[in-house]
Amino acid sequence: MYERRVVRGNTYALHILPWTGEPDPLELQRRREAHRKALARKRAKEQLRTRTPDPLEGRRHVDVQTELYLEELADRIIEVDVECQTDAFLDRPATPLFIPAKTGRDMATQIWEGDLFDFDIEVRPMLEVLVGKTIEQALLEVMEEEELANMRAHQNAYLELRCAELAEVQRLEEQERRHREEKERRRQQQMQILKLEKETSERIAARAFAQRYLSDLIPSIFGSLRTSGYFFDPVERDTETGFLPFAMENVEESIEKKVLGRILADNLIRDVTQLRLDSFEQKVLLIPREPVVVPPPEPDVEPKSSGEALVVESAVEEEVLTQPVQPESSDQAEAPGQTEPSEQAEASGQPESAGEVEIAVGTDPPEQLDVPDSSKAEAETEIKDPEPQ
After folding, report:
1. Which residue, 339, 328, 327, is CA-closest to 363?
2. What pLDDT score does 150 carry?
3. Which of 65, 126, 256, 387 has the fewest CB neighbours in a 10 Å radius?
4. What is the pLDDT of residue 349?
């Protein structure tokens, strides 16, 4: 890393940095003005340069090459694979054996048999050396074997002693471990005993406190519970919850049926009375038909709801004879046995009432309408209640 403030090389030739003071403000302003004028001139030249006119609507400018030689442009660079193969290397020849150059002059000599040494005499010291060396080597090997045997015996004795010491150490460690475990177990047992004694004392104290505290609380609680109805007689509770609601429901149903029968009977009586009154005022003759009696339903038919009751309506259809009452004339003879109602009433000595109906003389009196009695209506509409389970 280069730092020009750090001087390198000979310290006698120091690089003295020139002192630069504050730049002149007038010089800076003059430089800024010159730079601004240069930019303005460059911008004016760009504006005065002839430009290509804007394209027509629906068209656009396309960049084209104006060089003398056109260059093919493609989105993807054209790549061509070219292969080349060099010649095979020749095998390196074997390096020839180096034979030094011959120097000096050739000389010759003659050695006769027995000139150099006598084998029988010269071989004796060599044999003594070989035999002595062999014996010495054998003795060394025997001594080495004995030494190795002694070392092996000493090693075996040491290993036996070491194994015995290790066994003794393991025995002592195991004994210490058993003592430590026994100590820990005794300590845990003592802690459990103390804990049980503490819990027992706390339980005894809590029991005594609870007995002393609940001695007056339990009777008051049982009394309040008995007053609130938590302790009850099973027979009484069964009677209140099972029998009384069933009996009250049946009684209410029978009362509703009786009231309904009475209302129907009152309505029928009122309708018949009103009908007779209207017929008497209009002076028309009513011929009642036989009432249609609807048989009561089977006892196994259950009502649709508790508030409903089967109502048997007797449809009474009456035909009103719109025969005007003709006044009596002298030329029309009265039919034998026919008299006016007024005369009949005068003959009987009973005045006409608003509830009487005109009846022709000599005809059978009209049948009386069956007005359902309240007791009969109740008997007819009453449904056999299901047996309680």
Report:
1. 339
2. 96
3. 387
4. 41
Q: Which helix (H) or strand (E) holds 288?
A: strand 285-288
User: HSE-up of 147 (CA within 13 Å, CB side)?
Assistant: 6
For the chain, residues with pLDDT lower than 50 are 299-389
Among the listed residues 320, 358, 366, the one whose alpha carbon sits nearest the alpha carbon of residue 339: 358
- Residue-wise pLDDT for 62-98, tens only, equals 877 788 887 777 778 888 888 888 888 888 888 888 8
Query: Which DSSP string do the residues of 103-168 spell out, in sequence order?
Result: -S--------TTSS--HHHHHHHHHHHHHHHHHHHHHHHHHHHHHHHHHHHHHHHHHHHHHHHHHH
Q: Read off φ and ψ for residue 319, nearest 5 degrees.
A: -105, 130
User: For residues 320 and 288, what is the distance between their CA atoms, to the nearest angstrom?
Assistant: 9
Give phi and psi for 220, each to the nearest 5: -65, -40
Of 380, 352, 330, 335, whose CA–CA distance to 277 is shortest?
Answer: 352
Question: If DSSP codes are grouped into helix, strand and coil, which group holds residue 287?
Answer: strand
Q: Which pair of tokens denotes residue 5?
A: 């403030």
Structure token pair of residue 68: 């003398």
Q: Residue 291: CB partners within 8 Å, gap ≥ 6?
A: 314, 315, 316, 369, 370
Closest to 260 measured CA to CA, from 249, 300, 268: 268
CA dihedral 299, 303, 306, 311 (to 10 degrees): -90
Question: What CA–CA distance (Å, rounded) separates 120 from 90?
Answer: 61
Long-range contacts of 24-32 (CB under 8 A, 24+ apart): none
Q: Where are the chain's structural domains?
A: 118-231
Inter-CA distances, 188 with 175, 182, 198, Å:
20, 10, 15
Instruction: Name the one residue in this structure whose structure tokens are 């009456």.
Output: 318
Token pair 């009751």: residue: 309
Spatial separation of the C-alpha atoms in residues 386 and 241, rounded to whole Å: 18
